[in-house]
Structure formats: C-alpha cells, structure tokens
Amino acid sequence: MTPDVVAETPDPGSWEPTDSTKVAWEKQQLKLFDEVTAGDKFCATQH
Amino acid sequence: MLLAARPAAASDLIDLNATHVSLAVEGGVALVTYRAKGATRHVLVWGAINALAPESGKPQVRFKHDYSGGLTSLHRAAWVNFVDGCRPYDGPELVYFVAGCTAPDGSYWAIQRWQRNLPHRGWRPWTDWQRVWELRLSHWTGPLAQVEFDADWAFHGDAQGIFGRLMYAGAPVHGFHTTSNGAPTDTYGRSLYIDTLNSKYGPGWERETSVVFRNPTGAFCYSFWPTHDVSLPGQPARPAGDATATGSASSARA
Q1: Partners of residue B151 in chain A, C-beta under 8 Å
Q2: Is B58 buried (19+), middle (13-18) or exposed (0-12) by CB count in 10 A?
C-alpha cells in the first residue's frame, strides 16, 4: 500500500521542423521513448 | 504548459470528503479519525505493507478495515484507549499529504487526499462523484514508486506526446485486465491521471485524461488530440489541453 506519487514535465511547445534545436531534442526523446517503452506493442505505434 | 502524471490506487481508499483527519498507530494497526457526512469516524486499518510485484503469483496486498473503531473486529471500542506509538513523519516528501507518521518499527504510514474522479478534457465536475476528495492511506518501507515521465512530439510533430512508466522495487507496475474503457479490473492495475497546467482548458491544473500502465512493461504513452467522447458535454468536439498555451506544463499522478 504505497503512496500516490506525482511527476511533472514541461511541454515541448510546438513542433518546428526547421528548428535544429527542436529536431535534436526530438531525436533524443525518440531514443528515450524506445528505451522506456521497449517491448510494448501499442506504444511502438505511437511515435 | 506543464504536464502532471498522478498514478492512483497504490494507496487505499478510506472515505470521501473527509475533514479533521488524524492518524495514530499502535503495533501494526492504524487508527484513522476524521469527520465525514456530519459524523466523526474512527477506522482501524491493518494487514498490509508495501506492494507485491505483478509476477509474484500472489494476490496483491490489501488492508483490512474496521469502520466501527474495533467493535466488529475486537468486540470493543478499541479507538477509545488507542495508544499512539507513532513518531512525527520523517519519510520522503509526499504530494497531497494530510497526515503521516513513522511507526516504532520504522515503517511509514501516510494519508493523502486528492480528486481522482475529475472529468476528462478540462470540464468542470457536474456530479458529486466527480467532485469527491478521496482520503487514501498507505503503509510502506523503503523507496516510493517512481513515475518516469517525459514529453515529445508524436506522429511527426502532428501532436504533443507524453510517455513513461511506473516502476516499484526495480520492476514495472501493471495489472492484467481492464474494462473496455481502460480502467483496471484487478488488484494489480494502476491508473495514471494526466493533468495540464494553463493549457487550452484555462488557467490552473485541469484533468486531460486517465490511462492505465500497460502489461507487461508498466509503460504508458499518450498524445494530445481533440476528442469526440460522447460521455463528455460540449459535443461534437473538445480540443486537447496541449501545449499551445504559453507557460504551461503537465503532471501525472500514479
């Protein structure tokens, strides 16, 4: 019977494919997404 | 916008809309005292600590309750002479904290209170059930569950996305069955309540939706799209509380 917990994250704003900073960040996040959701069939379709 | 993830049901529901809450512990039994529905209640709770991994093959741990203050389980009003052996709470910081203490054996007891049933998509509650504040009790040793929570863009930038997983004691947290709407139906299932701050829904925190941590990974993934959910008012469509508003964020509760 463990306590309820909370996590927060800032939103990424709007996607801008010509913004190199956002492109690099998204590449990093996609890698993290694949690591965290590895083996999950549904999440694999949500890129 | 800020996004918040709030996993639920790891703790145990004691009552609704309770005030004047206090907590005492004697041996392995907690006494939760509060006011609800115009009366003072004395509830004894015992018999569970921490949580089992989904692959344990055993039923998940669950508290036992005596809402008569001892008359049912002990045939006496045990709450009257209850000797509180608990010290001030010195455990990890908790959200929605109402009361807590450190038991003589070093384990922690805590009471939290929050609104789990808020309607999705930022709608104001329109039923009593949606408005209720749940009083929830937990009892544990060691580290808390961890919500891993990140944002990205999904579908080539067409939508904002969030993803992550719930881990406890080094293992993913998940159930085995859900309803057609995704609500857990077994004692291992845990839900994630996704809130947005200063989003399209308006200022402050507003509930976007709830999802379940998935079997067997404990992961979740969600992207923000307009909804056509017929259970919500304001048909035919409701925008998603995505991040086009400035200065906003998201939160998740588990």
Answers
A1: 9-12, 29
A2: exposed
List CB contacts of B50: < 8 A, sequence separation 6 or more: A1, A2, B61, B139, B140, B141, B142, B169
Asked if B217 and B172 count as a contact pair (C-beta separation under 8 A), the reply is yes
Q: Is B187 in the A-facing interface, judged by CB distances under 8 Å?
A: no
% chain B with pLDDT above 70: 88
User: Could you tell me the sign of the dihedral formed by the alpha carbons of B180, B186, B189, B190, in that order?
Assistant: positive
* Chain A interface disruption, residue of B13, B113, B152, most A CBs within 10 A: B152
List of chain B residues whose C-beta atoms are within 8 Å of the C-beta of residue A30: 152
Q: How far is CA B92 from CA A43, B108, B109, B141, B224, in A?
A: 32, 10, 11, 11, 32
Q: Name which of B127, B130, B158 is nearest B225 in CA terms.
A: B158
B56-85: average pLDDT: 95
According to DSSP, residue B50 is labeled S
pLDDT recorded at residue B202: 86
Take residue B1 and report the two structure tokens written for it.
Answer: 């916008």
Tokens of B203: 């200022």
Read off the pLDDT of residues B194-238 as tens digits, 9 standing for 90 and up. Answer: 998 888 888 888 999 899 999 999 999 999 988 777 777 665 556
CA distance B175 to B142: 22
Averaged pLDDT score across all residues of chain B: 88
Report the C-alpha gap between B236 and B243 in whole angstroms: 22
CB of A8 within 8 Å of a chain B CB? The answer is: yes
CA B232 to each of CA B126, B184, B192, B224, B227: distance values in angstroms, whole numbers, following the listed order = 10, 21, 19, 16, 9
Q: Tell me the C-alpha distance between B22 and B38, whole Å.
A: 16
Residues 6+ apart with CB under 8 A from B73: B44, B64, B66
